[in-house]
Amino acid sequence: MERLDKHVSNRTGYTRSDVKQLLKKGSIRVDGRPETDGSRKIDPDTQEIICEGKRLPMGEHFYYLLNKPMGVICATEDKTHRTVMEFLPKGVSAKGIFPAGRLDADSTGMVLLTDDGVLAHRMLSPKHHVPKYYLVRLARPYEERYAQQFAEGLKLSDGTACLPAEIRKADAGYALVCLHEGKYHQVRRMLAAVGNHVEALHRVAIGGLVLPPGLESGSCLELFHKDVERMLKYVPTEGLCEQIMKNFSSYLINDCL
Fold first, then answer.
1. 198 strand-pairing partners
2. Are residues 50 and 67 in the same domain?
3. Roughly how many angstroms between the first and final C-alpha of the chain, as a whole number?
4. Looking at residues 133-146, what average pLDDT do you find?
5. Could you tell me if 111 and 66 are in contact, meaning their C-beta atoms sit under 8 angstroms apart?
6. In whole angstroms, what is the distance from residue 207 CA to residue 179 CA?
7. What is the distance between the alpha carbons of residues 38 and 7, in angstroms, rounded to a whole number?
8. What is the value of pTM for the model shown?
9. Distance between CA 256 and CA 107 in Å, rounded?
10. Rounded to the nearest 10 degrees, how much is the dihedral formed by the CA atoms of 152, 107, 134, 208?
11. In total, how many domains does the chain have?
């Protein structure tokens, strides 16, 4: 349970004094009814809180899924580049929110924005084996030998050893890569190690959660507990790859591949 005024302040960026004034004006509703008492205890997981006509995210933490555009960096702030924080829905406080994991500026696709450090650690730690899936456009045709080379664990040009990974042909000139770790420019460096080159890279899934094919580049949507659980839940690779491939043409149309 959490005080209503604290809950609203944390999720909007309003000060407690601001929230007090909103309560007086009847601008905050709990489960559809105007509320004037900021000290009232509410359950963020089960009760709907409306502030100035907008529903606040439910639960203890924020979880947003962004389809990151090209040229945007995964950082909370930067003096020269646009950051993923700019794409949070209007009215949502960015306080405490960060991108869970990195996606290069010249890559596009799925990025999780959250204030849940425990979840981020579980998602990113190699020992938890949460897979990340990437669709890539190749400079040269896909070769069947790549699959065995990736499965054996590649060594990069600087001697860095990679964990075993998966790669499969997606379409003419495209491949689907599955990693369980996140080294710097890893997908690009792994393809370079087998003699190819990545022209475009789009992350399409984390764990069992697949990027909605209709989510436009630069769009951000709120995730719920069932979605977050899907990220961490084991899903057979074969079935997930089939789901991703069904969305393949939509990714080509809507994104940067």
1. 138
2. no
3. 45
4. 95
5. yes
6. 10
7. 9
8. 0.80
9. 9
10. 120
11. 2
